[in-house]
Design brief:
The protein is α/β, with parallel strands linked by helices. Helix content is 46%, strand content 12%. Strands 1-2-3-4-5-6-7-8 form an 8-stranded parallel barrel, surrounded by 5 helices. α8 links the parallel β7 and β8. α1 crosses α2, α2 runs parallel beside α3 and α6 runs parallel beside α7. The longest helix has 19 residues. Its main location: cytoplasm. It is found in: Cytoplasm.
């Protein structure tokens, strides 16, 4: 895939797609293909596969590759597919990156190595090794709440000099730090936290990589569309309309994967995750129905 100069490398409104499973817990490529096609038809510019919402810690390398191939066949060559390949092991991450490239991914999403908590020099070396391993553009995934390791703004500034490091998925909750990097680099910033989609976009982010978009893709995109049209009041109104569902899905103490699958026909979650209880499902359904009924 060739990206036009001056445009976000993977589009604006991306969905961090869940990974559908069968009732017995196996990968369901047919359901994944349908979900991907539906998301694109409903306004998603691109899809992120095998990420946090895709339950990447509990899917095998073969399943990750099979998912990319199934989704690529479903959506065709024009839809950007970004593959999560981050692990705690640099060599394993490199291997996954090469498999993702061979399977048809257009880009890579890479977290810093988790658990071992490497210092920033080692974090930087890790990303450079992965970026040098394929011909694909790479997005840094700054999510210290899960990895235990921040990609510090100064590290991002140095990595921005690498020709294949083109984007950041930002879950650092550091609006000041992110704004400084946006102002000083050409990196495409994508909000990975629903409540920061609009604030980050307003200071120059490229768009969002949204878990809520699994169930409300048009509503997530509409906020960005209104802002691009110059109607900031309407963008704020649409953002506020989306927040009750986003809060229940992303800030209720349950992972987004669990809450998405409570609303979506995408099969079970894999252990150690557990399905949402009935009270949670009812609350999610109520907020979802209210969002759909709004104008």
């Amino acid at each position: 895939m060739t990206f036009l100069s001056g445009t976000p490398p993977f589009g604006r409104a991306l969905c961090a797609m869940v990974t559908p499973f069968t009732d017995s817990g196996a990968l369901n490529p047919d359901r994944a293909a349908k979900l991907a096609a539906d998301l694109v038809a409903d306004g998603c510019d691109g899809l992120v596969l095998n990420g946090t919402s895709g339950e990447s810690p509990t899917t095998t390398d073969d399943e990750k590759e099979a998912l990319i191939r199934a989704v690529r066949a479903a959506v065709g060559p024009a839809v950007p597919l970004v593959a999560g390949v981050g692990t705690a092991d640099t060599a394993h991450t490199v291997a996954l990156a090469r498999r993702a490239e061979a399977a048809g991914a257009d880009g890579l999403l890479v977290v810093p190595p988790y658990y071992s908590r490497p210092p920033q020099a080692a974090v930087e070396a890790h990303f450079r090794r992965v970026a040098d391993a394929t011909g694909l553009p790479l997005a840094l995934y700054d999510i210290p709440g899960r990895t235990g390791t921040r990609i510090e703004p100064d590290t991002i500034l140095r990595l921005a000099e690498h020709p294949r490091i083109v984007a950041v998925k930002d879950c650092a909750y550091d609006l000041l730090g992110s704004s400084k990097v946006i102002a000083r680099t050409s990196l495409a910033y994508y909000s990975g936290c629903e409540e920061l989609n609009l604030p980050l976009y307003a200071v120059g982010a490229a768009g969002c990589i949204s878990t809520v978009a699994n169930v409300a893709p048009r509503h997530v995109r509409a906020v960005l569309d209104a802002f691009d049209a110059g109607d900031t009041a309407e963008a704020a109104r649409l953002n506020g309309r989306l927040l009750p569902l986003a809060e229940l899905m992303m800030a209720s103490g349950l992972p987004g994967t669990v809450t998405v699958k409570a609303l979506l026909d995408a099969g079970p979650v894999r252990e150690p995750l557990q399905p949402a209880d009935r009270e949670t499902v009812d609350g999610l359904r109520k907020a979802y129905d209210e969002l759909l009924s709004c104008r």
